[in-house]
Write a structure and sequence with these properties.
By secondary structure, the protein is mainly beta. 6% of the residues lie in helices and 51% in strands.
Length: 71
Amino acid sequence: RIGFDSSANHLFAGTEGGTVYNWDLQSQKATLLKGHKTSITSIAYERQSNIIATASSDSNVKIWDLRASNS
């Protein structure tokens, strides 16, 4: 799965292995978000709170605070 934020500053991609990539297109740096054990089926981004929600094929949903992952 792939998702963009509405300002097109971030690209999110989920893998079959359960990793989520968060690419900051301005800095050209990527952050890996690990925690799912199966393939990512959905990604949603909420810009004001700077969080994403991801779902995987085993029906797990995770909420990621991107401010915390960038520190």
